[in-house]
Structure formats: structure tokens, C-alpha cells
Amino acid sequence: MRVAVFTDNDFGKVNGVTTTWRAVLAAARPSRGVRVFTASDAEVDLTDYYAAGSFGAGLPWYPEMRVFWPRVARLARELRRHQTTVVHVATPGPIGLAGRWLARRHGLPIVGSYHTQLGDYVHIFSGSSRLGAAFDRYMRWFYRPCASVLVPSQATAEDLARRGYEERRLHTWPRGVDCQRFTPERRSDGLRRAWHVDDRRPAIIYVGRLSAEKGLRMAAPFQRALHRHAVDHRFIFVGDGPLRSELGRLLPDAVFTGTLSPEGVAEVMASADLFFFPSATDTFGNVVLEAQASGLPVLVSDKGGPCQQMRPGATGEVCDAGDAGAFTQAAVGLLRDASRRAAFGAAAREYALGRSWDAALQPLFGAWADADAAWQSSRAASGGALSPAPTVSRRAS
Q1: How far apart are alpha carbons 193 and 183 in whole angstroms?
Q2: Which residues contact 176 (CB under 8 A, 6 or more apart)?
Q3: Where is 113: in which H helix or E strand?
Q4: In the beta sheet, which residues pair with residue 171?
Q5: Is 122 found in the same domain as 48?
Q6: Is the dihedral of CA 366, 305, 156, 209 positive or negative?
Q7: Whole-angstrom distance, CA of residue 122 vs CA of residue 120
Q8: Helices (H), 107-200
Q9: What is the distance between the alpha carbons of residues 332 and 232, in angstroms, rounded to a whole number?
Q10: What is the DSSP secondary structure assignment for residue 389, as one 8-state letter?
Q11: CATH assignment of the domain containing 217
Q12: Domain check: are 193 and 133 in the same one?
């Protein structure tokens, strides 16, 4: 079996998708022959990772998020050199489209994974429900040839079924967490002193894109409500995005770290007291598991995948999406009671220890094996071979 993963998230980006694929490459045995195909500013040619050097542009609603023109001829060359037997499309952007097209041209089986509610994001950013619906239709078309569509949570599977996806092709593929990297042992007293926080003034941390689809416009009313309850605290925001300036204006006492390395994220998480994640659009929320592995209680929305990655009332609390009052009610008891926070944090760490990447990746490897076996059987029955490479204009390279 030789698997080519096409993703628009080159490894220069730091997000849940790249975290997932780095974990896949770390866990995949050589016999699986997994190689990630993408594009970036500079060409990178490694055994398990190929990025075609290309030019990129920021998305209209999110200039910081760049997508790259697919160098189709180069990708086709590398696909054949890799002797691919299964194509996995991980994103519906230009690189994912190139992977879909090349698989169809070569007669290779396609497995897909669904990471982002793109239609919801477009609706939020554009304000147009019609444009959001158009992207939903595009997404259904994009994933239609896939033998399996792997989704990160049962909540996402149910949502996609409501949106018209075939239920028989939807399979849950959860995520894991690196509990050696994300651990309470990384707690830094120096960071806490720099933030001016302690048990009586806890640190509330958010990690991720600073963007509207993450529900972060609720942060300011949430803070005002905490002040009305006379609960001292300090917000720590890790990441960057289009809401950075607005959040800085509305929460002038907050700390903004910008984008950090995974090691840096692990340190700041372990140094905080409570994890705040109000997103109602995330299909999974890797950071929710990372926070729990770091020994933090978590506050999450009741919509999307994150609420299925914790234990309500034990490792954190689930709150009504978009309701600052509900988040406040859940937060007050934890922020006022250090011993209760510690008990929730210990339970969170214990829960995360049961979410290893080795176990989480088995549904993915199984889907690949099934697709490969079906293709090999069909190929043997027909006496066929890998189709010739498609003819591609030199201008595309």
C-alpha cells in the first residue's frame, strides 16, 4: 500500500490539520508508504513529505491564511514516483482538487477526511447564507468520489448526514494527543509571574485562530460578566488572525502571545488555569485534548465536536453556544475555587492519557487498507496497471 495525502495545509502552518498529519507520519509504518503532498513558497522533497514550490495568495476573508497554486505536473510526477495506490484528499482547496483530479485520471481509489465546516465559515465571514450554501454544495461534490469520508466526531457525521452526505460513507476518525509534549510538568512559574497571575487571579487561556468563526466575539461580554461577579482573572490568547486588533481593543488587559511553536503552546497551556474554547463550528478541536493533557479544565460550546472530547462535569463544562452568561456561570465556580480546578485538571489529564494517537489512527489506516485491497482486487481481475500519467500543459508546472 502506498498512500498519497493531498492537503492545502503545508507544514509551515500551525493548526489542527497539520498537527494531525504530522502525527500520522510519525505513526505510519514504512510498509504503508505514506507521503504528504502539498505546496509552499519553497520546494521541499522528503521521503514522506513533498511540497511543490509555488506562489500563494491570502483568502479574501482571511489574508493571513494563504493557499497555493497547484503545480499539477510536478504533483503528477511525484505521484508516479511514489507508486501511489491510494489517494487521500484532506482539504477541498487547490491542492485537494489536484489530488482528486489526479486520482480520477489514474483510476486510483480516493479516501477523504473532513476537517473544516467551510460553508459555515464562508457564511460567517461573508454574511451571506446563499454563499455559504454554495460552498456546502461544492463540498458535497468534492467528497462524492471518496470510498470513505472520515470525520473527526460523531457530531460532524450527524451534521453531514443532515447536509445530504451518504451516511454509509461517513466513518468517525477521532484524534489523539501527545501526552509527553502536553503535560502539567511544563508549567512555568516564570510565565505566571510575567502574566501577573496566581491562584487568586487565574489565567484563562484560548489557543487557536483569532477569528470570528471561533466564537471569540463572546470574549468581551464574557469578561464583563466575570467582572460583575467580582472574579479576578487574566485572559491569555495564543495565536493570530483577523480579530487580533479588535480583541486587543476590547480586552486591553489580555496577553497576546502571537503564534507559538508546539513546544511553546505546551508551556503556556500548562501555565494557565482554565481553557476557554467557545467555537461552535469546530469539527473536533485538537486543542481541547491538548489543554486537558496539560491538566486544564475546559469550557466548550455545546455545538460541534469539542464537547465530545471531554467529560462534562468532570474534566470541564459544556455551555450553550454563543451564550456569555452560560460560560460565565460555568467559569465562576472553577475560577473561585482552586481545589475544584485542581480536581477537574487531574481528571482532565487522566482522560487525555486514554486518547493516544496509536489508537486514534486505526480507523484511518483501516480505511486506507480497505481502499487499497479493493483497488488491488479490481486491478488483478482486469489485468490492469496504473493508468498513464495525464498530459499536463507545461504552463501548469
Answers
A1: 20
A2: 23, 289, 355, 356, 357, 358, 359, 360, 361
A3: strand 110-113
A4: 150
A5: yes
A6: negative
A7: 5
A8: 118-126, 129-143, 154-162, 189-195
A9: 10
A10: P
A11: 3.40.50.2000
A12: no
Sign of dihedral through CA atoms 142, 147, 153, 158? positive
What single DSSP character describes residue 212?
G
Is the CB of residue 112 less than 8 Å from the CB of residue 173? no
Nine-digit cell at 13?
502552518
Q: Is 196 helix (H, G, I), strand (E, B) or coil?
A: coil
Whether the CA torsion 339, 340, 344, 350 is positive or negative: it is positive
Residue range of the domain that includes 228: 184-353
- Count of domains observed in the chain: 2
Question: Rounded distance, CA 174 to CA 280, Å?
Answer: 18
C-alpha to C-alpha distance for 259 and 14, rounded to whole angstroms = 8
Helix (H) or strand (E) holding 370: helix 362-382
Q: Would you state the cell numbers that stand for residue 100, as one nine-digit string? A: 482528486
The pLDDT profile of the chain, 397 residues, written as one tens digit per residue, is 999 999 999 998 878 888 899 999 988 877 679 999 999 999 999 999 999 999 988 777 666 678 899 999 999 999 999 999 999 999 999 999 999 999 999 999 999 999 877 767 676 766 788 888 888 899 999 999 999 999 988 888 998 999 999 999 999 998 899 999 999 999 999 999 999 999 999 999 999 999 998 999 999 999 999 999 999 999 999 999 999 999 999 999 999 999 999 999 999 999 999 999 999 988 888 999 999 999 999 999 999 889 989 999 999 999 999 999 999 999 999 999 999 999 999 999 999 999 989 889 999 999 999 999 998 888 787 776 544 434 343 333 3
Provide the 8-state DSSP code for 273: S
Same domain, 313 and 382: no
Task: Determine if the pTM surpasses 0.85.
Answer: no
- The conformational region for residue 57 under phi > 0 = left, psi -120 to 50 = alpha, else beta, is beta
CA quadruple 48, 44, 174, 374: dihedral sign: negative
CA distances from 41 to 38, 111, 134, 397 (A): 11, 27, 30, 14
